[in-house]
Amino acid sequence: MAFVLRRFVAVLPVVLGITLVAFLLIHAIPGDPAATILFGSNAGPEQIAQLRSQLGLDRPLLTQYLDFLGQLLHGDLGTSYLTSNSVAHELLSRAPSTLLLTGAAIAVAVGVGVPLGLAAGARPGSVVDQLARGVSFLGVAIPYFFLALVLVLLLSVRLDWLPAIDDGTPRGLILPAVSLGWGYAAILTRLVRGRIIEEYRSEYVRSARARGCSEWRVLLGHALRNSSIPAITTIGLQFGNILTGAAITEVIFGRAGLGSFLASSITSKNIPVVQGAVVLIGIAYVLINLVVDLLVGAVDPRTRLAGSAA
Known about the structure:
The protein is 79% helix and 0% strand. It contains 13 helices and no strands. Keywords: Cell membrane, Membrane, Transmembrane, Transmembrane helix, Transport.
């Protein structure tokens, strides 16, 4: 319980930092933020002053930030300039699509990377190992957005097997998930392969074999368990990168998710939406890393003991 409480306390300053960065976005705009937002609408000085008052830009900076924190604590992310709808509603209505794509990409990464890494690490130098290293090399070398275009050209335009644009069906999720998750599958393949090779050289693996344990039990019951800790950590750390990649992937495949909505909001200078998206994605990233810390602590008790000693 003390381990969990320490982890919760440790994330509080990070969450506070996320809210500060999101709040300062509007003040990072060069010049007068109100004039910049109204640029191109032939707004006069009175309209600019009215918008400054509406945004609270005429108040002290600390007061603005405290008001911003108060709104966040009540679940209020502001109002969209374009639709006049709640930013929280706009973001949460699009979040399931992005989370579905992110989850599918992680499933591709784990489903391809872990078995391939296990097979390659258990038989180093074999044909499977050569194949795994080749797949890993290509996965790391090819950017996910380029892979997405190649997959669309081959599997959608040439062969007409899968839809090029999201149609709301499971088939429409395959290409985005594979193109986004393949690079992370390559990273996991390398990581698991290296760890399995290292674990196979350990004394406890030799002891397990000497006791007559089967090769599958040695691999899955001993080597994989100790290799899973860095893999779990890597998956958690890559979650933020997958969310970022989901933005571009959603644009390529025409998915109505957080990423494409955020991209259009940046173009239209819809600052409350950008601020809300930064807060929402940042907190999601922190929570995922918190879950990863707790999972690592559950898998490896040494982590909890090290934290207690510190």
